[in-house]
Give the backbone structure.
Amino acid sequence: MPSGRRRSKKHKSKTEDKEFLELGRRHFAKDFPNPSRLGCPNDDLLKLLAQEPKRVADDIQKHITSCSPCYRTYSEFLQQMKTAGSH
Amino acid sequence: MRPLLLNAVDRLGRKIDPAVLSIAHEIGPRALSYARILIGDPAEAINYLEEAAASVSAAIEQKKCFGTPEVRNVAAYLFRTFVRIVDGARRKKPLLEASSTENEDAPLCLSAQVRVETTVLLNEVMATCDRGSREVVVLRLEGFSWAEIGKHLGISTHAAEARFSKALDHARKTLKIPRRKG
C-alpha cells in the first residue's frame, strides 16, 4: 500500500517538524535567563520589532535570540499581532 | 546570572589570545547552555570552551605566520570548534559508560540528542545567517505560516520557505549534522 505508507511518512515528518519548532521556541524562551537584564531594549522597541521589523536595528533582533525574557516579550507581541490579524 | 569567568590558559597549558578570550566570554552563555544539555557538567563545559579558545588562538596565530587568509568571523569559528570538542566528548562518554553500566535509558538519550541538535542548529543559524533568514526562522518558531511570514516581511511565500531551508541546511552542513529522515 504505497499511498498509505507515503501518508504515514508525511505525517511523521510533519510531527517531527512540529517537535523541532517547539524545541526551538522553548530553547530561545528559556535557555538564556539574563536575570540582570543586561543590554535589554525597552518593550516599545520589542513591540516595534514584532510589528515593523525593518524599522528596528539589527542588534535588537540579534538580542532576542540570546535573552529569554526579551524573546518571551517579543513572542507575546507577535501573538497579539497574529490574533489581531494586523500583520 | 553569575558572570562567566574563563582562564587565559586552557587545561593543557595553552595560552588564549585576549581578543579570543573576550569573544569566548561573549558567546559563553549560549555555548554553555548547549553543552549543559549535552554533557551536563558545567565545569567540564567551561574547560572545553577554554580548550576551543586556545585552539582558535593557535589557529589565528598560525594563519598570521603563514600569511593565509584570516578568520572572518571569530565568534562563529570559536563556536564551531567548541561544538566539535563537546561532540567528541559526548561520543566518547557513552563508550566509557557502556563498559560499566547497562544502557537502560536509550530513548531518553535519543530525545536529548534531538534536543541538542535542534538547539545547536538554531544557535548556528542565529550566529551566522543574515537578518532576513533569522527573522524567518524566529517567525516560523512562533507558529507563523509561510504565507504569514512572507506577508509580514514583504517577501514571497516561496522565498520565506526557501530562506528557512537554506539557513538550516547551511547550519547542518557547517556542523556536519545530518538531516533526520521522516
Summary: Confidence is low (pLDDT under 50) at residues 98-110 of chain B. Residues 1-104 of chain B form one domain. The interface with chain A takes residues 1, 29-30, 33, 114-115, 118-119, 122, 126, 131, 134-135, 137-144, 148, 151-154, 180, 182 of chain B (CB under 8 Å). Residues 87 and 113 of chain B are 10 Å apart (CA to CA).
